[in-house]
Write a structure and sequence with these properties.
Blueprint: H1 2-18, H2 31-48, H3 52-58, E1 59-66, E2 72-74, H4 75-83, E3 90-102, E4 105-118, E5 121-136, E6 139-149
Parallel strand pairs: 1-6
Antiparallel strand pairs: 1-2, 3-4, 4-5, 5-6
Length: 154
């Protein structure tokens, strides 16, 4: 009787244990996530290149950005500032980006690095950020951004 019980136990447990393999596949990226990540890069490009047309399309009319010092800017202020030529070019890139998707809302969290020249030296200023995108009338737009100073030396 014990042999039959042991055999039946093996018959039940072996198939279950074989199904417990680790997930070696890369996580799937949703269409929304792909679209928003591309739009995030386009937004940074618009800022780098002072592209007011692209900026206007990406940034929602009710957009608000909060800076590390607590100051805020809205879309009209951003649009005015992008028209003002910079004394030196900047480069923006992101790293350690994580996404959260809630239907027609995508939240990006990560680090943004602002690279610029001052006194002949290349300086990098890292910040942590949270950007919120909403899909309205079939298109994604950024509605909010929050930057925090990154005090870690890089």
């Amino acid at each position: 009787m014990n042999h039959i019980f042991g055999f039946l136990l093996v018959l039940i447990l072996v198939p279950l244990s074989l199904g417990q393999t680790g997930n070696s596949e890369a996580p799937r990226v949703s269409k929304s996530e792909t679209e928003v990540m591309k739009l995030e890069r386009a937004w940074l490009d618009a800022y780098e290149n002072s592209d007011a047309k692209a900026m206007n399309a990406i940034v929602a009319d009710d957009f608000v950005i909060t800076f590390p010092d607590g100051s805020r800017q809205t879309k009209p202020v951003i649009m005015d500032s992008i028209k003002t030529p910079r004394s030196s070019p900047i480069k923006l890139y992101t790293e350690d980006v994580r996404t959260r998707i809630y239907g027609d809302t995508v939240i990006l969290m990560g680090r943004v690095i602002t690279e610029y020249q001052r006194d002949g030296k290349t300086l990098k200023e890292p910040s942590s950020y949270t950007d919120t995108y909403v899909k309205r009338k079939g298109r994604w737009q950024v509605i909010a951004s929050h930057l925090s100073s990154d005090l870690k030396p890089k």
